[in-house]
Design brief:
single chain; 3-methyladenine DNA Glycosylase, Chain A; eight-stranded antiparallel β-sheet; 6 helices; about 25% strand
Length: about 220
């Protein structure tokens, strides 16, 4: 891994990375931040349920909030494995969280899928979640795995041709307008603005990034 700022985990500028296909391993074998940004707008599918990715967070071995920061263990081994694999674990032994392993093999990095806009199988999602409002079904990393029935048994499975599919945005769809903010639900490296949200989505998890709240406030006053 080179010593450039990006290799050390610096975010990229909007529009710097070209459109890529998440069905290819090459999509994941690059900057974890580029992958995090480009996953917003893609479609995540498992079985008969699917949703559009509206929020992600990037994690890199260079910072203490990443599981790979401590090096390779039985738990963290998937993070240092081939890009394009699913890293699924239980947070505090309760909620399953889905991550997409990124960067070249041997580099510990992954993108946490934080929120989806439900598209298919909403009634199945409602039954699994015990909720009705579409905005609440997948507005958090533990919520979306429950809604899509994604658990630790899918850890290490391929996101390119495996049971969990990540598909390109719908043809002709407008690229999402992104805002960045600090990651949430962590206690280390909290200053890093490695959270990427679709600015116009009501399905993003709370609290919304300040830039997103400011945009919503301006819309209400117009």
């Amino acid at each position: 891994m080179s010593g450039s700022p990006r290799a050390a985990g610096a975010p990229i500028s909007a529009g710097e990375s070209p459109a890529r296909d998440p069905r290819s391993t090459d999509f994941y074998a690059r900057s974890v931040h580029a992958v995090a940004r480009d996953l917003v707008g893609c479609v995540l599918r498992h079985g008969h349920t699917a949703g559009r990715v509206v929020e992600t967070e990037s994690y890199h071995e260079s910072e203490a909030a990443c599981h790979a920061f401590i090096g390779e263990t039985e738990r963290t081994a998937p993070l240092l494995g081939p890009p394009g694999a699913a890293y699924v674990y239980r947070s505090y032994g309760v909620h399953a969280l889905l991550n997409a392993v990124a960067e070249p093999d041997g580099v510990g990095a992954a993108v946490l899928i934080r929120a989806l806009e439900p598209l298919d199988g909403l009634e199945v999602m409602r039954a699994r979640r015990g909720l009705e409002r579409a905005e609440q079904l997948c507005s958090g990393p533990g919520k979306l795995t429950q809604a899509l029935a994604i658990g630790p048994e899918l850890n290490r499975t391929a996101l390119t041709g495996g049971p969990i599919e990540i598909l390109p945005p719908a043809p002709g769809s407008e690229p999402p307008r992104l805002v960045a903010g600090r990651r949430i639900g962590i206690t280390k490296a909290v200053e890093l603005e490695w959270r990427f949200c679709e600015a116009d989505s009501t399905h993003v998890s709370r609290p919304w990034p300040p830039a997103m709240r400011a945009t919503r406030g301006r819309k209400k006053t117009q």
